[in-house]
Amino acid sequence: MSGELAGVPAAPSGAGWGRGGRLAARRRLADRLATGLSLGATGIVLLALGSILLTLLARGLPGLSAGTLVRVMTPPGGGGGLANAIAGSLVQTGLAAAIGTPVGLLTGIYLSEYATDGRVVAVVRFVSDMMLSAPSILVGLFVYLALVAPVGHFSGLSGAVALAMLFVPVVVRTTEDMLRLVPLTMREAAYALGAPKWRVVLQVCLRAARAGVLTGILLAVARVSGETAPLLFTSLGNMNWSLSLDAPMASLPVAIYQYAGSAYDDWVQLAWTGALLITAGVLVLNVVVRMWHRRLGAGQ
């Protein structure tokens, strides 16, 4: 069997294979070029991340000691630590997560499962997207005008509210996107069993999308835990030990901002140590949640 169709003139010997060969060679070359560029870009990112981590370890570890974790901030040369800044960051970030997680989850569920196309939905999505990319300093200024200026003093509560405003859009976007990825057949199977919609959303959709939703919450925690600009306008910072939400409160990002630009070696060292602590905290939180999620999935 020759493989030629009846009535179709045969191509010159070797011409078709020649064009196919050149085309295949160009495709192989383009594929290798794209693969090489992708590998090069990945290598650049890994190199940059590795360089940042190595720099943090090299500059931050020398200042890490028990005294750094238990002593409060002091004037230069006083042998102070970062205990009040660590506690302040935990309080403000935790309160921001406590405020932002339910608001972001419920908004994402509404946009994905209940909202119909309309002006209100479009406005909610537009505001969420704008907040997602809004400069954090604008959020700080807004909270300053809304909460700090009327009472006449900075406070840890206003810092937590500012961080919560940056927290919510990340959770809204990831929750909505993850819920939309849940297969329609899972919802239909639940409805076929007679389950009401709220039960389908809570026990089927959220259960299937929980890995992505948790990742979104972690991304939000990682983002707000390193924010400095909004805290400068809201909680400001405090050299003393204070966990009162109605008073200025210290935080690691503000301490790093203040110490990194100083002319004192011990303060600069504490700034590097503080940056290392923030990075390690986000990394540990990420690893713990992923291990918990993996163990929970294995137990089912």
Give structural notes.
The chain is mainly α and 300 residues long. The protein has helices at residues 15-60, 66-70, 83-114, 119-133, 136-151, 156-180, 184-192, 197-208, 210-225, 229-232, 252-260, 265-299. The model is unreliable at 1-8 and 13-17 (pLDDT under 50). Helix content is 75%, strand content 0%. It contains 12 helices and no strands. The relative contact order is 0.13. The N and C termini lie far apart (58 Å). Helix 9 (210-225) packs antiparallel against helix 12.
The 3D shape can be described as globular
The unreliable regions are: 1-8, 13-17
How many E-type strands? 0
Measured as a percent range, the helix fraction is over 70%
Cα-based radius of gyration, to the nearest Å: 27 Å
- Helices and strands, in order, run as HHHHHHHHHHHH
Number of helices: 12
Protein structure class: mainly alpha
Summarize the biggest pleated sheet: none
Write down the overall mean pLDDT.
87
The end-to-end distance, rounded to whole angstroms, is 58 Å
Beta-strand percentage?
A: under 5%
